[in-house]
Write a structure and sequence with these properties.
By secondary structure, the chain is mostly helical. The protein contains eight helices and no strands. Helix 3 packs across helix 4.
């Protein structure tokens, strides 16, 4: 198994540019910042001398109090990559304090801040990993949804082809019987606009069988249907609806007259008594019996 790349201990923070990892004058390449590249860490060569006069002008207490990160950044390269000569002792400031102690204090502040940067980057890394996991789950859900939609799309395409074939067959049948499909659809649309949401019920043979038979009953049903038709057709449905309503009213009046005449005729038939039956003819008398001949 491949070993994981070495974890970067000190890493720059956005508010503190880390210039210590810039190319040096020694010719050695700086260590990489990309943890994905398995490059071993190494220490750079030290060069130059320590600027003790610059350390002498610094106030460590002020830097701690004001959290002066810019001052620490200006000393980062100097304190980290300057070559210290053990044969040369560190000078003292005007107060008699050793500048080596002051440099050590500054190094402590720098290391403390870089440790804080490391912790903050570790937390950011964990947060990004959680977001990456959530994004991966979301992508997986989207892939599953895409598969379902593709399957549904294929099914709808098959249904569409089937319905297109059915429509084509119907058009061929209409053409065969001499009917125009446009006229059929226009008639259906006109019927829907006329009846609205209350279309007439379909013809039922059972209802037809239940209707009373006879001329009077037929006239009564015809009159009822005509009156229902007059009440259901609004005045704004057609331009000539007023004349149509008058004609229907005339038909209703004629039907009523026919019903009245038929009822009167039946009443007269009930009032006239039937003729008396003719008496039966009397039976003819029977002929007398013949007497036997007398003897001579």
């Amino acid at each position: 198994q491949n070993k994981p790349p070495p974890k970067l201990i000190l890493e720059p923070h956005p508010s503190l540019p880390y210039n210590a990892l810039t190319p040096s004058t020694s010719g050695l390449p700086p260590p990489t910042m990309d943890s994905a590249v398995n490059t071993p860490f190494f220490f750079r060569q030290r060069a130059g001398s320590m600027p003790w006069n610059k350390l002498e002008t610094l106030d460590v207490e002020r830097i701690v109090r004001d959290v002066d990160l810019d001052a620490l950044q200006s000393l980062l390269d100097i304190l980290t990559f300057t070559k210290l000569n053990p044969n040369i002792s560190a000078p003292r400031d005007v107060k008699g304090e050793s500048l080596a102690i002051r440099g050590m204090q500054l190094q402590q502040l720098i290391v403390e801040y870089l440790l804080n940067v490391q912790e903050s980057m570790n937390q950011s890394e964990q947060t990004l990993k959680q977001e990456l996991r959530a994004a991966a789950h979301h992508v997986a859900d989207l892939d599953s949804q895409l598969d379902r939609l593709n399957t549904r799309n294929k099914s709808l395409k098959r249904e569409l082809k089937m319905y297109q074939a059915v429509v084509k067959t119907c058009e061929n049948m209409l053409t065969y019987y001499g009917l125009d499909s446009a006229e059929i659809f226009l008639a259906a649309r006109a019927s829907a606009g006329h009846y609205g949401k209350n279309p007439p019920p379909p013809f039922d043979k059972g209802d037809q069988a239940k209707r009373p038979q006879g001329l009077s009953a037929s006239l009564e049903n015809l009159e009822k249907e005509a009156r229902i038709c007059m009440s259901e057709v609004p005045a704004s449905s057609f331009p000539d609806v007023a004349g149509m309503t008058d004609e229907i009213g005339t038909i209703v009046d004629k039907i009523s007259s026919l019903r009245t005449a038929l009822s009167a005729n039946r009443s007269l038939e009930k009032e006239v008594p039937p003729p008396a039956p003719a008496p039966a003819p009397a039976p003819a008398p029977a002929p007398p019996p013949e007497s036997p001949p007398s003897p001579v």
